[in-house]
Amino acid sequence: MDISRLLSRARNPIPTGIDRVEYEYARYLLAHEGHRLTFVAFHPAGLIAQVGTSAVRDFLDVMGPVWDGDTGLRARLPHMAQRLVQTVLLSCWTMPAYRGDSIYLLVSHHHLTRPRAIAQFLSRHGSLFMPMVHDLIPIEFPEYARPGEPERHERRMATVARLAAGVIVPARAVAQSLAPYMQGRPAQKHVHVVPHGLHVRLSGQGAGTMRFPADGRPYLVCLGTIEPRKNHLLLLNLWRQMVKETGSRSNTPRLILVGRRGWENENVLDMLERCPALRDNVLEYNDLSDPEVVTLLQGSAGLLFPSFAEGFGLPLAEALVLGVPVACSDIPVFHEVAGENAIYLDPTDGPAWRAAIERLLKQERGGDTSAKRGLHLNLFNWPRQVALGVQAADQTAAFFHSRSSHGL
């Protein structure tokens, strides 16, 4: 398994969704597949080679608590990651060339733009390549991407199409988007839909360090990086309108934005920083730990998720598990995740969102039964989902090794 993304994110104490995916796969494999597990990583020199299992375990033992809010451990992570990356160059020349039923698992998009390095690794070790494709959003919606990102993502998908034996995707919607790239390729019939799990078992912890106003005003949450694709501008304009209509900030519910500031978002930032009506009515938090996010969601009137496009939608799944009402965009992947358990809205229909917000504020929270939450917890259980991903990789490998043994 490749852990390059986790090493590259050692200076970031707040994980993204893809960070969490790679972490949970690494943790599961350590616990359940250690007898056949080798960790590898990419070096900027264009090499992929082994990193020590015990050193990776130590790294993950620090990274998990840091993500859960342990600030005392933050300074250790970058040094641990640097030492691990440095070992790649040495092990490149000492790592034995494993021949046989080996699988190279890459569950992030890290270094998919470096096909030569991946191809050389696969050739040397006789491995089958099993990447995870999280989404094709930069290609499908280039207007929401950073400059140059659509072209980079095209190169990533070309690498997957040329080198992969199979692919894991988090949703059927992603599989459909990927299908044209897989046409006539070896992985065409080996695209496996494996939804992500969730990290919500820390529910209720971390409350002692909460930084939110305790004045009793109701609030709703929007969770995700502040970037155009997430459609924060819709919500900010609605909140400005609500303040104008009520004539009083204290009579307006709060909107709490959780997520780091991204790119191409000048209009949103201008409103956050300069609009008087939003002051104290819209709060922004860029560095909340996982337990703080869970506690914040549990106390809210609901989650607002007006995104134009998503590959999965972890905040939506998290809200389902916690029994938090949701209003979200009417896009196919959200229907996959939430079924009938969300309010679906056109992401451009401001009046409909205003009505949904008022509905959430009036809604009682007693309708979600413990049995229903248990069903969602089972659906989004991380060990279960990783086990399905490993099973998909093994099934793909078995198919290709069977063909090889028969000379096909």
Automatic annotation (TrEMBL):
<dbReference type="InterPro" id="IPR001296">
    <property type="entry name" value="Glyco_trans_1"/>
</dbReference>
<keyword id="KW-0808">Transferase</keyword>
<dbReference type="GO" id="GO:0016757">
    <property type="term" value="F:glycosyltransferase activity"/>
</dbReference>
<protein>
    <submittedName>
        <fullName>Glycosyl transferase family 1</fullName>
    </submittedName>
</protein>
<dbReference type="Pfam" id="PF00534">
    <property type="entry name" value="Glycos_transf_1"/>
</dbReference>
<feature type="domain" description="Glycosyl transferase family 1">
    <location>
        <begin position="215"/>
        <end position="364"/>
    </location>
</feature>
